[in-house]
Design a protein that fits this description.
With 90 residues, the protein is an alpha+beta fold. It has two helices and two strands; from the N terminus they run ββαα. The protein has a two-stranded antiparallel ribbon with strand order 1-2. A hairpin with a 2-residue loop joins strand 1 and strand 2. The longest helix is centred in the last third of the chain and has 43 residues. The protein is elongated. The protein starts with a strand and ends with a helix.
């Protein structure tokens, strides 16, 4: 674990959904066995690789979460629209 906070703010405005993600903290992949005042070359490599993976795959994970949020909201909208009187006339 690394110290930090991730905040996601979701706003709907005029039918559009906006998701703002921000984070504060250190992106630092910890390899407990290889850290300390004199980490080994393997430990430094593992930390660098893990940190880069967090940067690369963390963004992909949040984009996937955004897509799921958009799908979820659209389903709610569609379900609500199906209950409206004009939808039943069709």
């Amino acid at each position: 674990m690394y110290p930090g906070t991730i905040c996601r703010l979701i706003i709907e405005h005029k039918g559009h959904l906006f998701i703002y993600t921000s984070g504060v903290g250190v992106n630092n992949f910890n390899n407990i066995a290889e850290t300390g005042p004199n980490p080994t070359v393997g430990g430094r490599f593992a930390q660098a690789f893990g940190g880069r993976s967090n940067d690369k795959y963390g963004a992909l994970a949040f984009r996937a979460l955004d897509r799921e949020a958009f799908k979820y909201v659209q389903k709610i909208r569609d379900d609500y629209a199906a209950t409206l009187p004009q939808a039943k006339k069709k």
